[in-house]
């Protein structure tokens, strides 16, 4: 009898980690599925949309993506615009914030109007 209890105790010690490794079946998944076009999504290079231009007009700020104007809190390709700065845009994806500058190297830092378009002043 004593040998059977010892064997049962040893088996329970061996099986317990295997049972606990499965985790709580009611817990949410550890890795959330990604939407296409967002960082880490399957089949993409993880690029967020890049603004072509930012504009401040009449106390409001606008950002231009792919020829369309967006305002604060609107969504662009699944990413929400949380801030429009003078030289770039902050996008939020799954609670993470990403800064997307208009120009990576920071050369083009000047105010433009909506009439200037994407070509710059005087064009």
Automatic annotation (TrEMBL):
Keywords: Signal. The keyword Signal applies. Residues 30-51 are annotated as: Disordered. The keyword Signal applies. Residues 1-21 form the signal peptide. This is Integral membrane protein-like protein.
């Amino acid at each position: 009898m004593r040998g059977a209890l010892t064997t049962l105790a040893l088996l329970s010690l061996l099986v317990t980690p295997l049972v606990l490794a499965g985790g709580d079946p009611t817990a949410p998944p550890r890795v959330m599925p990604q939407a296409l076009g967002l960082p880490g999504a399957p089949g993409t290079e993880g690029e967020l949309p890049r603004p072509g231009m930012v504009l401040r007009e009449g106390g409001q700020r606008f950002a231009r993506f792919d020829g369309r104007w967006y305002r604060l809190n609107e969504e662009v390709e699944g990413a929400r615009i949380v801030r429009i700065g003078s030289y770039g845009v902050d996008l939020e994806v799954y609670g993470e914030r990403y800064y997307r500058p208009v120009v990576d190297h920071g050369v083009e830092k000047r105010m433009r109007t909506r009439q200037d378009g994407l070509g710059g002043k005087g064009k």
